[in-house]
Amino acid sequence: MTVQIDMGEMTGGARAGMDLEELLATRLLVQGNSGSGKSHLLRRLLEQSASWVQQAIIDPEGDFVSLADKYGHVVVDAVGTEKDLQMIAGRVRQHRVSVILNLEGLDADRQMKAAATFLDGLFEADRELWYPMLVIVDEAQLFAPAAAGEVTEEARRRSLGAMTNLMCRGRKRGLAGVIATQRLAKLAKNVAAEASNFLMGRTFLDIDMARAADLLGMERRQAEQFRNLDRGHFIALGPALSRRPLAVKIGPVETAGRGGSPKLLPLPDQPAGDAKDLIFTPAPGELPVPRPRAPEPVASTGDVLNQLNAASQAARDAVEPARTLLDYGEREDRINAIIADMLEDPDAAFQPIAALYQDFQVRCRIAKLPGGAPDLQVFREKLSVARAGVDREEVDESAWQQAELIAAELPDDMRGVYLLLAKAALAKAPCPGNQEIATVYGTRSPGRARWLLSHMEERGFLVCATDLRGNRIVTLTDLGWQTAPGDEAAA
């Protein structure tokens, strides 16, 4: 069944019909300067199709809320959270209720985020809810701008993505976009390009007239006629309207918007003296305007940073530094406990040092560690000992200090492996396997562990040998310590 929407009359008196089913499949773009009658056109379309198809209106100025009384639209004020708005959009599709998203009173940034959230909720509905719906977006250049403006990049990106989904991918989900804009030059091209039906109203700027003529397939010299269109007159083209450009005069509407053009009213007849008294004499009960107080001096950013640095430095100075990495005062006990908790996560061994240090700082703040978190270098040293699994009860402290001094000369990524080998040699334990060395090194590859041992051997820090059984023995040259034979393939 073909449903024809009566939009008004064409030149010659014939009725201007719009094929509603074709509109749902091909979308519509309305363009015209302020005062050209775009809102009147959209209202005519909404009123004529209200009984045939579900509608959702993105209304930045609250101009279409008057449709609710006569046609049963539900007005949704964008005052809740984004999650609430997305859930409402899902229920709109589920229950097939026509709605008006009223964005009046919100700033441009919040309008864009609210519209994006609502459109995403309509777009992401389950497949069984993909019923036909007209989605009308008034002042579409606000929600799909051609260039960045004063809004945040996040809001612009989200809104533009939602509008692109509506116009490019909405058809299969039953969503038919109808967008109206004051200027084609301000509207993102990938959004405008998806419309196949056009209603072009009065336009004055050359660039907009040229684009309108191109969209309608008219010659450039014919673009001048857009300047001469009266209010409510449009040039129509598209499969739902006409196969060739035709002039259309939009018919009357049954409801009225809250805006509209201002009407001239005569000024009140009032003597000049009375007018002066009205301006300069306070009215009864009018509160006096408070005089602004002198602003209090505001500390500069440099002063605030200096205060913070001084407080942090005082806290660090109040803490006595540890003598060795195994010095277990109360503060050191808490630091090592925090690092041990971090390493309980199986993936912690393979995270970059920057991510681990950031996690460490947060944990220190939560634990209210006296003096704050140690710096990155101390953290690296503590982490090396923790990865090596060194326990103060298992090693001789004076001998371990020698291992620390030599390990301090190594690059950071080698230090933990060197201490692991030193621990095994000091305890006369078997040489650790490749998998254990790789984990301390921060990788899952045993091949990287073999490469690291070869690299350390080339630099003279150790010597690797193999006994008659094929087990590996590592000698730490600077310490003169040697591990017991160990299977390099051991888990």
UniProtKB/TrEMBL annotation:
Any one GO molecular-function label of the UniProt entry: ATP binding
InterPro entries per record: ATPase_Atu1862_pred (IPR014588), HerA-like (IPR008571), HerA_central (IPR002789), P-loop_NTPase (IPR027417)
Protein name (Swiss-Prot/TrEMBL): ATP-binding protein
SUPFAM superfamilies linked to this entry: P-loop containing nucleoside triphosphate hydrolases
Organism: Roseibium aquae
Domain Helicase HerA central residue range list: 7-71
Domain of life of the organism encoding this protein: Bacteria
Keyword line: ATP-binding, Nucleotide-binding
